[in-house]
What we know:
Blueprint: H1 2-37, H2 54-86, H3 93-122, H4 136-169
Helix pairs in contact: 1-2, 2-3, 3-4
Amino acid sequence: MKDFILKLVFIIAKAAQYGFAFIAGSICIGIVATMILGDKIWQYTPVKYGHFTVFHALLALFVALGIFIIMLYMAICIQKLVRQFQVNSIFISENIQTVHHILFGLLGITGLQLLTALFFRIVHVGHISDTFDFSLGDYWVNLVFIVIAFVAGEVLKRGQQIETDYNEII
């Protein structure tokens, strides 16, 4: 049962990795199109924002690209963790570092979303996309994932200490 669950999590993380890579590639195409077309880009989109400029569009695209690159990296980290768990290497320093990478990725995503949402509110630009629709519910979801990653890191650290103490006694 444990092997089945780990394989399933690995497959889901692998699919997420490919999905995030596809989305990041699509965003790169959007960045190139926006840079090439400039202000002409608005005739190809349904966007009708009054003072939404090319700068705002590029900022939103670059931040979204950063978010999806971080998510891609986190999917790779999850795959790495699952591979270690499949060979029963749980309480090792490599896993602790990987969980910390996931934690910092979650903090980075939350920070990017928050700063971008604040910037767009300051310059009075309306709803850009769901990526930057950072409501109170998103804060709670991100906070829950951050706490889970932090607790997982602490559990792995404590498990490694217990395992080291056990090996020293023997």
